[in-house]
Amino acid sequence: MRFSWLLLFCLFFGCDKQQFSSVEVVGHAGNGLNIQNSIYQENTLQAINLALGLNGISGVEIDVQLSLDQQLWLYHDEKLEEATTASGCIASKNSDELATIRYKSANKEKLTRLDELPFENYTGFTFYLDIRHFNACENQILNQAHFIAALQPIIDGNSNCNFVLITNYPNWLAGFKQKGWKTALNVFNLDELKTINWQNNPFDAVVLRNSNSTTDDVNWIKSQNKNVFLFDIRAPKTIRQAMKKQPDVVIVDDVKAALIEKT
């Protein structure tokens, strides 16, 4: 009898895990954003390599900003003083200066330029590029054509990888789609999504904060032939809650916990 109960217990939880098999696990800002058990600063080469070295991960989400000399740099916050020893905005600085800046973190990592990533080592992985279109120091929208010109050689030159461009600025969707690139629209909730003109602002996927979405929201978006990416997922309980909604992708801050939950 004891063996039977143990068998039933294992079968139950094994079947429960199987329902997550189609959900892809993606590292938020590399190996997690503002997470204490991450040994590397987010959006750095070190954090990306650490995440992509984990068995079962599908890719990473990284934040991409354009410098004054039109180079692409990885950085999450609007202003440099929030996480580094410098001040100002990436969009207002040239790459020579940005290359000297270090994070305030324990390891004092340098800022990472997107084209410095060894994409030749990342075959099969997907990079979710969160495009930052706004220069907070100048209070202005950046030039999308400059962004596209900087992205083109990276995306075209690394066909061994997959790329998805994420934006919360619908006006940029059509320009990215014209290049044949996969796009994802980041919205606050389903109500905001329904206000968007989908024909004029084409996209392939929707990015939602886990706490602002329900299973019904995910199912409705999928019924419109759009993929669903959920983010802001940290604790194991939240990871499980998000996976139960059956999104296509969970962008998580505790990658190891998510991979354990999935398997």
How much helicity do the residues have? 25-40%
The CATH topology comes to TIM Barrel
Number of helices: 9
Strand order of the largest sheet: 1-2-5-8-9-10-11-12
**Total strands:** 12
Q: Regarding CATH, which class?
A: Alpha Beta
Into which percentage range does the β-strand content fall?
A: 15-25%
Distance between the termini: 27 Å
Structure report:
- The chain has 263 residues and is of the alpha/beta class.
- It has one domain: Phosphatidylinositol (PI) phosphodiesterase (TIM Barrel, Alpha-Beta Barrel), CATH 3.20.20.
- 30% of the residues lie in helices and 21% in strands.
- The protein contains 9 helices and 12 strands.
- The strands form 2 sheets. Strands 1-2-5-8-9-10-11-12 form an 8-stranded parallel barrel, surrounded by 5 helices. The protein has a two-stranded antiparallel sheet with strand order 6-7.
- Strand 9 (182-186), helix 6 and strand 10 (205-209) form a beta-alpha-beta unit.
- It is globular.
- It starts with a helix and ends with a helix.
